[in-house]
Amino acid sequence: MIDYVTTEDGRRLAVDVTGAPDGYPVFLLHGTPGSRNGPKPRGIVLYRLGLQLICYDRPGYGGSDRHEGRTVRDAAGDVATIADKMGINRFAVVGRSGGGPHALACAAVMPERVSSTAVLVSLAPSDAVGLDWYHGMNRHNVHEYGAADVDAQALLSDLTSSAEQAQRDPSRFIGLIKSGLSEPDKRVVGDVVLRRLLLDTYAEALRQGAVGWIDDVLALRKPWEIALSNITSRVRLWHGEDDRFSPVEHTRWLSHHIPQAQVEIQSGIGHFGAVEVLPEILSWVADGLDEPGQTLAPPSPVQVEPVAAQNLLVRRDREDQSLGRAAALPAAT
Questions:
Q1: Which of 77, 110, 254, 287 is most buried, with most CB under 10 Å away?
Q2: Tens-place pLDDT, residues 62-79
């Protein structure tokens, strides 16, 4: 179901709700660029998990009005507005790629409302002390984020050109990012069904042009204006070790600044592996529920290896990837 929610300042946010109508609410925050119709588990999977999945277009993407000059922190206000309009008090947040920082903002700004936080292949703050922010990042992303710091006009020109190409032919977008793909990502993007889902996502994301994409990049390079120490929910950080879009060191940095976080770094997986692992992440959210829509039980035991005051699990296998891919396909309706 696609609907629109109006914010206090008069902006419209496009919202899509799937899964169990009476299920525990989970906000899924899309990547950069991205949209509310990104790859997600089939409705039957969400019903079995007892979850209601809420996806919305960040301002400037898809059907949502632009919010020029927005910050990462501003996402918490938009999520709170949607939750209030839906009569939801407590919920979980899951952020994928560029949605990761925005999910952390929700958890930090609304600790009394966010019960679980899962962040997949996220970036760390641009001012993260001790982190070489660009190390391990592909050339395209280095250029894109670097332009946000020194030449916003060049960023506007570059992303507008890329968006126009993708509007004419969404498959061109895959071509634009192809050189930055690791071998594991080439496998994921090469899957015919997932490729189609990604193309549909990008086509909707860039319906208004590049404005949402530009505002995301600028926001991610500005201070997030949040305190990670304010996060009190259970937290799970996941990253593919072969990610060249959001290098794995970003999640390692986050893990040191969110003490209660459970961290999983999976070898032989890249950035787009976050699509395949999403059903497992949502199962983790569901496992933490005591009574759907009410309270949370203590965090379920997770096999972890403590490393320097953090919970770090490095997976060396690729099992269950086929399940993840199948579960990510939309229901046939």
A1: 254
A2: 999 999 999 999 999 999
